[in-house]
Design brief:
It is built from 21 helices and 13 strands. With 718 residues, it is α+β, with helices and mostly antiparallel strands. Strands 8, 9, 10, 11 and 12 form a 5-stranded antiparallel β-sheet that branches. The protein has a 4-stranded antiparallel β-sheet with strand order 3-4-2-5. Helix 12 (356-366) crosses helix 20 (624-651) and helix 13 (368-383) crosses helix 18. It is elongated, with a radius of gyration of 30 Å. InterPro entries: MMPL_dom, Mycobact_MmpL, SSD. This is MMPL family transporter. Pfam families: MMPL (PF03176). It is found in: Cell membrane.
């Protein structure tokens, strides 16, 4: 099939290129942007049967808070001493000024004694806002609030910082926008630099940039169209991750093709015959590799946590488009350029002798047991780091420390419990009639006595419970002693607090625990469930792809086992760096899922390339050890080059300044290096050599066949 496709593309390059240009123009002109369907609110990704979601629905029905955001101005003295009467008067004047300023979307401004910290060092000014936290008009409102606060407190001994959900979104959006620019620029520089070193050719170095740039213009529009058609949201990280995936995977596929093209040129094929032969061999590898990635990403649709679900379709579409480009657009361009794709280097004209990969191949073929133990041992040692693994749900930790919203959290911590900005709200609904305020006061006291609860935030009337207009629903806001994102807070809400809230609710009422901490407790439950479902499903489906490709049951088993060990070694190394050296409380809760998918899916690219080469060498009449020798010699350079490039592109995320992206960049780049240089280059060939013909049972796809025309010169009998 790919040989026929190769002839079609190689002999009609201008038609193929014109088709791609027309499709690109149409999509760029008419498709929506990815920003139209992105969101940063993790709680919006939970299904309706979780308690935090039900509490939010009850809040919306009774208090109208579901569509309301807020901005909190945290004011303290510059010398961090107790606020004076004059200071508190100035803060009150600030509140009055904001209340009467007519700022669009501002619904109310509250301050006063109930917003003064117990140690009297910090006072809050709470600004109610109409709309959702990611509404651009609310971001503009926060900007005006900050400007007016600067004017009102200028010339005083006070300093302030505006924080809260909208302020965090604005700062977070700025951080992600900056990260996108940095990562995109660093990725392009890395790809060009590494390809210049590998091929010594500016043409080969620029080919992935131009090709992936074209695909990058198409994929976001297609994803946005799909998101609108099926009404799903896309996490704000998708754009950055998609950029990295396209450049990384696209460059891999182009490297696979160019290495094979150069090999056939060195064997004496004319340029067009060499390109057709290269595509015939590599097309199956690219398609199988892309299928593995798509299956892994689409397995995310099984998740109940929507942030994972949102990654699946978007990244799958991008990979499919890139794979199609790799077997059509790229060969069309190379067909026009010919061997000049390697200009000015002349290395394509001669086969090098005594290379590092030749020596590594010979050693692997002679001592496969030693190579298997050494490579497997490295992966196992790194995997031991998983014994210290912890998850971190602190979304504010993604913000760079120099943002105003992060500074506001630091100011609050000097006077209020850690959970003051995001109280945990218990909603009590009467089964019939109205609620008894005395019973609610007793209930609030019982909730306050739960270990880990720092206190009850008084309502507008000074009472512990805030009643709805019809008196049928009450809200009790609890301040936790620890950060609302801390694992201890999640344990508290998901355990003792919910137990007491449900069991001690006044007679004839039903209680639901809501708020940010409750949402993340539910997200944790959903995340744990998803890991146990998606991991095995993705693994089984990828194993099926390998089985169909190799016509074997044995090879897919040890290939997937190697990938699983690669996942644990990748996570172990990440834990050692970020929790050990970096002293973080844990790694992002989303990281295990993303690392598993990237390492399993993209790492399987290299396994597919290497195992396909092992089978090819065996079919040419080589015994298992000689096949391993030649596979490392001929497949090793392309795997190594692709691994270095892809690891380099993900490593560029270390420059993002956003902790989640930095963790992901480190973990995936290390995982790719392990997959390429430990697993695919050494462990897989050595295990295949040790297993011999049994590796290909029951299809025995390693049986020697008559070499195809143009490759008889490469037959080496063991």
């Amino acid at each position: 099939m790919f040989e026929r496709l190769g002839r079609l593309v190689v002999h009609n390059p201008w038609k193929v290129i014109a088709g791609w240009v027309l499709v690109t123009i149409a999509i760029v002109a008419f498709a929506p942007t990815l920003a139209d369907v992105t969101t940063r609110d993790q709680a919006n990704f939970l299904p309706a049967d979780y308690e935090s979601v039900q509490a939010g629905e009850l809040a919306e029905q009774s208090f109208g808070r579901a569509d309301q955001a807020s901005a909190t101005i945290v004011v303290k003295r510059q010398d961090s001493q107790t606020l004076t009467d004059a200071d508190r008067t100035a803060i009150g004047d600030l509140g009055e000024d904001l209340d009467g300023a007519g700022i669009d979307r501002v619904t109310a401004v509250l301050t006063g004694d109930q917003f003064l910290a117990p140690n009297k060092k910090v006072q809050l000014v709470t600004v109610g806002l109409e709309g959702l936290g990611d509404d651009p008009e609310l971001v503009e409102a926060v900007k005006e609030i900050r400007e007016r606060a600067t004017d009102a407190l200028g010339g005083t001994d006070l300093e302030y910082a505006v924080t809260g959900d909208v302020a965090m979104f604005a700062d977070n959006a700025d951080a992600f926008d900056t990260a996108l620019v940095i990562v995109g620029a660093a990725t392009i520089v890395l790809i060009i630099g590494l390809l210049l070193v590998i091929y010594r050719s500016p043409v080969a170095a620029l080919l992935p940039i131009v090709t992936v740039g074209l695909v990058s213009a198409i994929a976001p529009g297609l994803v946005a169209w799909l998101a609108q058609a099926f009404d799903f949201q896309v996490d704000q990280s998708v754009q950055i991750v998609m950029t990295i995936v396209l450049y990384g995977v696209g460059t891999d596929y182009i490297v696979f093709l160019l290495f094979r093209y150069r090999e056939r040129l060195r064997a004496g094929d004319d340029p067009k015959t060499a390109l057709v032969a290269a595509l015939a061999r590599v097309g199956e590898v690219i398609t199988s590799a892309a299928a593995a990635i798509v299956i892994a990403f689409m397995a995310l649709l099984l998740a109940v946590f929507g942030a994972f679900t949102s990654f699946g379709p978007g990244l799958s579409i991008a990979v499919v488009v890139m794979a199609i480009a790799a077997v059509t657009l790229v060969p069309a361009v190379v067909s026009l350029v010919g061997p000049k794709v390697f200009w000015p280097s002349k290395s394509w004209q001669r086969t090098p002798k005594g290379t590092l990969f030749q020596r590594l191949g010979k050693f692997t073929g002679r001592r496969p047991g030693v190579v298997a133990v050494a490579s497997g041992g490295v992966m196992v040692v790194l995997a031991l780091g998983m014994f210290g693994f912890n998850t971190d749900y602190d979304q504010t930790g993604q913000l760079p420390g120099d943002t105003e919203s992060a500074r506001g959290l630091e100011f609050m911590a000097t006077g209020f419990p850690a959970g003051a900005l995001n109280p945990t709200s218990v909603y009590v609904k009467a089964d019939s009639g109205t609620l008894d305020e005395q019973a609610l006061a007793t209930y609030a006291q019982e909730l306050q006595e739960v270990p880990g609860v720092g206190g009850v935030m008084p309502g507008p009337t000074g009472q512990p419970a805030t009643l709805s207009e019809d008196g049928n629903v009450a809200r009790i806001d609890l301040l936790l002693d620890s950060s609302p994102y801390a694992n201890s807070s999640l344990d508290l809400v998901d355990g003792p607090l919910r137990d007491v809230a449900h069991s001690r609710a006044p007679a004839g009422t039903t209680a639901k625990v809501g708020g940010l901490t409750s949402a993340f407790a539910d997200i944790r439950d959903a995340n744990n469930r998803d890991l146990w479902v998606i991991f095995p499903v993705a693994g089984v489906l990828i194993a099926l792809v390998l089985g169909l490709l190799l016509r074997s049951l044995v090879a897919p088993l040890y290939l997937m086992l190697a990938v699983v060990v690669g996942f644990f070694s990748t996570m172990g190394a990440t834990v050692l760096v970020f929790q050990g050296i970096g002293d973080r409380p844990g790694v992002s809760f989303m990281l295990p899922m993303l690392v598993y998918l990237f390492v399993v899916a993209i790492g399987t690219d290299y396994n597919i390339l290497m195992i396909a080469r092992l089978r090819e060498e065996a079919k040419l009449g080589n015994d298992p050890r000689k096949a391993a020798d030649l596979a490392v010699e001929h497949g090793g350079p392309s795997v190594g080059a692709a691994g270095v490039i892809l690891a380099g592109t993900f490593a560029s995320m270390l420059l993002a300044g956003v902790s989640f992206l930095m963790e992901m960049g480190f973990a995936v780049s290390v995982g790719i290096l392990i997959a390429a240089f430990v697993m695919s280059m050494f462990l897989v060939p050595s295990l295949t050599a040790l297993l011999g013909h049994a590796a290909w049972w029951p299809g025995h796809g390693d049986r020697a066949t008559v070499p195809p025309p143009g490759e008889r010169d490469r037959v080496t009998v063991g």
